[in-house]
Amino acid sequence: MTIFEKIIAREIPAKIVAEGETWLAFHDISPQAPVHVLVIPKKLITRVGAADPEDAAILGTLLLAVQEVAQKTGILETGFRVIINHGRDGGETVPHLHIHVLGGRPLGWPPG
Ligand code: 5GP
């Protein structure tokens, strides 16, 4: 069981921002910007490159959840970045799909 499944099960605490039937959004424990929220499916999808066609609805719902998170955290107008890390070179550290939502300051480009 990953740390994110434990957060979904409320076995370990997290600062929850918003929740839907199929997803959960909470503040990253090590924020890289003034706003840094993770949006995850409650269903275990390990990583974006391992999602199945049957996951299409939940994947779409996650992006709509991003919109809700941006609105709730006050960065919808100022702007934000959405990141999904996949695998070694992507910097993935938790094998449970998560969308990073970063904002609250100008973000550099290209990313590191
Ligand atoms: P990744 O590197 O896999 O794309 O992102 C994993 C993210 O999960 C990291 O930004 C890390 O700070 C965050 N994280 C790891 N453990 C915890 C935790 O226990 N609680 C919270 N809220 N975030 C975590």
In short:
The protein is of the alpha+beta class and about 110 residues long.
Given helix and strand content, the structural type is: alpha+beta
Please provide the ordered H/E string of secondary-structure elements: HEEEHEHE
Helix-residue proportion? 10-25%
Query: What is the CATH fold-level name?
Result: HIT family, subunit A
Specify the overall morphology: globular
Q: Number of helix segments?
A: 3
Radius of gyration: 13 Å
Bound compounds: guanosine-5'-monophosphate
Q: Count the domains.
A: 1
Strand order of the largest sheet: 1-2-3-5-4
CATH homologous superfamily heading: HIT-like
Largest sheet descriptor: 5 strands, antiparallel
Average pLDDT level: 98
Distance between the termini: 30 Å
- Parts with pLDDT < 50 across at least 5 consecutive residues: none
- The proportion of residues in beta strands is 15-25%
CATH architecture: 2-Layer Sandwich
CATH class: Alpha Beta
Topology:
Elements: H1 3-8, E1 16-19, E2 23-27, E3 35-41, H2 56-72, E4 80-83, H3 87-90, E5 99-103
Antiparallel strand pairs: 1-2, 2-3, 3-5, 4-5
Protein architecture, described:
The protein is of the alpha+beta class. Helices cover 24% and strands 22% of the residues. The protein is built from 3 helices and 5 strands, in the order αβββαβαβ. Strands 1-2-3-5-4 form a 5-stranded antiparallel sheet, with helices on one face. The chain starts with a helix and ends in a 9-residue tail after the last strand. The mean pLDDT is 98. Guanosine-5'-monophosphate (5GP) binds at residues 3, 14, 26-30, 38, 85, 91-94, 98.
